[in-house]
Design brief:
binds flavin-adenine dinucleotide; six-stranded mixed sheet; 14 helices; alpha+beta; D-Amino Acid Oxidase, Chain A, domain 2; ten-stranded mixed sheet; FAD/NAD(P)-binding domain
């Protein structure tokens, strides 16, 4: 079956829905729901996934885009979770999504705020991370080993780093996603290729389905409902995480991420991660979210200031508010059951089946495949296949923009209009066209906010809006 998601396919599948006998109705089109849909469909089950907005509308597009080796879990004593994370990182980087993930050097500068004892701890952490890599048989050709580098090399990797007292840096490597929303779309399309119906703009509410574009109720028959609604599920402690976006030029175009400890806290850092399009993502806050859960969370001024001030401690020239060119916030769906700060709550997942409703909660982007496997194992004896199942686009690891984002489909995408959407903006009109042709985009926001990430930089989103509108109009005219 084709992996191409289009408005016409959605319509056809909605019309057939009442007569289908589904094994699973998956609710939620984030990484968890998409992962469950792929796992179940690839084991031969009849699956439909419903999402009230768009694929990757929720938390899955607001992550730090790291495919973690789980060092942080090791530091907090959860060896099992660290191993699981490192194992899934290996699966993603080697087999299922090598086109979307690149090794990223993560540098911790050894400056005036890290004494000899701190330096020894950082070194031990880097070696432990490498042990995790080795224990999951991820070769050094995929993730190079850690090393301590001198001042000159530190300045080459991190040109903006603070120089007084600098003694070098520890560098270790982790996986970095080109784009989290693209991972969700790739998983959902791979599920569609195995027969899953991917139905966006369909809301599930207490057993009832509504097409949010028409307001119509939809009839369906399903043996099991899978709730994969992330932070919108009961049983989670929501914790908010904020990033800001900076122009890479402001940090001298770093080629490694820079990590700076949060003063007065153990095992908490802020980090600035370089991205392919000349931007840097600076994160991360981790605070309980009080009050009702917003549809789309936003960064508060004090959170932006905290990130700028903390990173500035490690920079030669402190950042200013005017350096911020965008910001975003997400809500972690942490599993309830532990006391303490949200930053300390476990990132483990939980899977429970009760009265025909399977609830999948918690976890990380990195471990989505394992979460899905654990969930679907409760429903069938058929063996899980996803460890060796490449996602659409897997196979090419070219470094040009289209290969980085579309992998082996880059040549197909390039058959579209190969002009940038606006001057100084790296995204091509062909990418917007592909969003409609293959990736199930239905609105201008789907194109600007999720198929491309134009909206991450305020000025790019504004400049590209008229082009996205015209691509959508052309698409409607052709349909
Ligand atoms: C700031 C931050 C940074 C992070 N960084 C990383 C990282 O670097 N690496 C990593 O591995 N993990 C990271 N994570 C964790 C990871 O992003 C999340 O664990 C993961 O994205 C959760 O995915 P999900 O599918 O469970 O939830 P979501 O992505 O929120 O998906 C739930 C979906 O359900 C839909 N929905 C809700 N209610 C309904 C309904 N009634 N009907 C239909 N649809 C509905 C929503 O619209 C949404 O699209 C980070 C999280 C945060 C917040």
């Amino acid at each position: 079956m084709s992996s191409m998601l289009t408005a016409a396919r959605r319509q056809r599948e909605l019309e057939r829905l009442p007569s289908e006998h589904l094994d699973l109705l998956v609710v939620g089109g984030g990484i968890t729901g998409a992962g469950v849909a792929l796992d179940a469909a690839s084991r031969g089950l009849q699956v439909a996934l419903v999402e009230k907005d768009d694929l990757a509308f929720g938390t899955s597009r607001w992550s730090s885009k790291m495919v973690h080796g789980g060092l942080r879990y090791l530091a907090s004593g959860d060896v099992g979770l660290a191993f699981e994370s490192a194992q899934e990182r290996g699966v993603l980087m080697r087999r299922t999504a090598p086109h979307l993930i690149r090794p990223l050097p993560m540098a911790i500068p050894l400056g005036h705020d890290i004494d000899r004892k701190g330096q020894a701890l950082v070194g031990a952490g880097a070696r432990a991370a490498d042990l995790l890599r080795a224990s999951t048989r991820t070769p050094r050709s995929v993730l190079p080993g850690p090393r301590k580098v001198g001042v000159a090399e530190t300045l080459r990797l991190l040109p903006a780093v603070r120089r007084d007292g600098l003694r070098g840096a520890w560098v270790n490597w982790d996986g970095h996603l080109e784009d989290d929303a693209r991972l969700v779309v790739a998983v959902a399309r791979t599920a569609a290729a195995h027969g899953a119906r991917i139905l966006t703009r369909v809301r599930y509410d207490n057993g009832r389905l509504t097409d949010t574009l028409t307001g119509e109720s939809l009839a369906y028959q399903a043996k099991t409902i899978v709730l994969a609604t992330g932070a919108w599920s009961p049983g989670t402690t929501p914790s908010k995480g904020v990033h800001v976006v900076l122009d890479a030029a402001r940090l001298g175009h770093p080629t490694a991420s820079i990590t700076v400890p949060v003063p007065g806290e153990s095992n908490r850092y802020v980090f600035a991660l370089p991205h392919g399009d000349g931007i840097v993502h600076l994160g991360l806050t981790d605070d309980p979210l009080d009050g009702p859960l917003p549809e789309v969370p936003t960064a508060d001024e004090h959170e932006i200031r905290f990130l700028l001030d903390t990173l500035s401690r490690g920079l030669e020239v402190p950042l200013e508010r005017s350096d911020v060119i965008g910001s975003f916030a997400g809500v972690r769906p942490l599993v309830q059951g532990a006391e303490g700060r949200t930053a300390d709550l476990s990132r483990r997942h939980s899977v429970t089946l009760e009265d025909g409703v399977l609830t999948v909660l918690g976890g990380k982007l990195t471990t989505y495949r394992r979460m899905a496997q654990d969930a679907v194992d409760l429903l069938t004896d058929v063996r899980c296949r996803t460890r060796d199942l490449p996602l659409v686009g897997a196979g090419s690891t070219g470094r040009d923009r289209l290969s980085r984002r579309y992998g082996s489909e880059a040549a197909e995408v390039a058959r579209g209009t190969m002009v940038t959407v606006a001057e100084g903006v790296p995204v091509l009109r062909a990418e917007l066209e592909w969003g409609l042709r293959a990736e199930g985009a239905l609105t201008v926001e789907d194109l600007l906010e999720r198929r491309t990430r134009l909206s991450l930089v305020d000025a790019w989103g504004e400049a590209a809006r008229p082009v996205a509108e015209s691509v959508l109009e052309e698409g409607h005219a052709k349909a």
